[in-house]
Specification:
- This protein is 57% helix and 0% strand.
- The chain is globular, with a radius of gyration of 15 Å.
- Helix 1 packs antiparallel against helix 2 and helix 2 runs antiparallel to helix 3.
- It is an all-alpha fold.
């Protein structure tokens, strides 16, 4: 089954669910606006910034849903085709 939902629609759906549960405060609504902006950037094609925008969107959604996400972990979708030296550059 292929998901035909855009990133914007997926974020809107999440925000709708959170609003129904009455768990969003003013800060959460602002984060929701940010999440929609980031989702739109992905839907429009973020180019070389796709990984960075995706990471920021994941962090924003995690803040909205109060889930902790380790953003230093490899993303299974974005960057999976990059060499290990790019994904994990040597620390100097």
């Amino acid at each position: 089954m292929v998901n035909e939902m855009s990133n914007h629609e997926a974020v809107e759906s999440l925000l709708g669910s959170l609003r129904q549960e009455a768990v969003l405060d003013t800060l959460d609504e602002a984060l929701g606006c940010l999440a929609l902006t980031l989702a739109d950037a992905l839907d429009e094609g973020a180019g070389m910034a796709t990984a960075a925008v995706s990471k920021e969107l994941r962090a924003t959604l995690a803040a909205l849903t109060a889930k902790e996400v380790n953003l230093d972990e490899d993303d299974p979708i974005f960057g999976a085709d990059l060499p290990a030296t790019v994904r994990h550059p040597p620390k100097s």
